[in-house]
Amino acid sequence: MPSVHTLVDIVVWLCWGLVAVVWIVGALYNSRRAPRARRRAFGGSAWYLIAICAWLVVRQFLGVESVTFRVEPETLRLFGVALLVVATGFTLWARLVLGTMWSSAPVAKERHVLRTDGPYAVTRHPIYTGILGMLVASALALDFGAWLYIVVLVLVFFELRIRDEERLLREAFPSAYDEYRRRVPQLVPGLRLLRSSGS
User: Fold this and answer.
1) Which among 121, 119, 114, 123 is positioned nearest to 93, based on CA atoms?
2) Hey, which residues does 108 pair with through a beta bridge?
């Protein structure tokens, strides 16, 4: 019978592999069927290279390969796997709901539709929320180390992308997007409820 560690590795590979396949198939489909771009934010893709270089430098100098907690490793791994499955489902749901409006770079398209339902009623950027959840879950499931750097760098990258995306969406949907921003949190589900209950 496979060990817990082996099963965890299999689930992690399956989840990330499924997301990769959906993204590739979706990109190929969108290349033929998606509406043309009306407005585009430039410079976003350069952050991929910057993030990778920063990760390599930070990892080399800090050298953190694992982090330990006062929790049984198997319990932590299983919790990470459960969170990973949920986060993967949420990511795929958001990607499928967005359909041909999805793009690899911040862009406003012809006949662009502002999505505010389904996962977009939970956070304004549910794909980013889901991917961050997958990264955190993978860190829990596989021991921390380099995953910590990746989570931080991806979070910074997403925040930079979100600025461009939200600027474009506010130009495309001036009043509707401002009202949407007031209702729905950016990345963390339920954050507005916590703030209102604490005040």
Assistant:
1) 119
2) 39
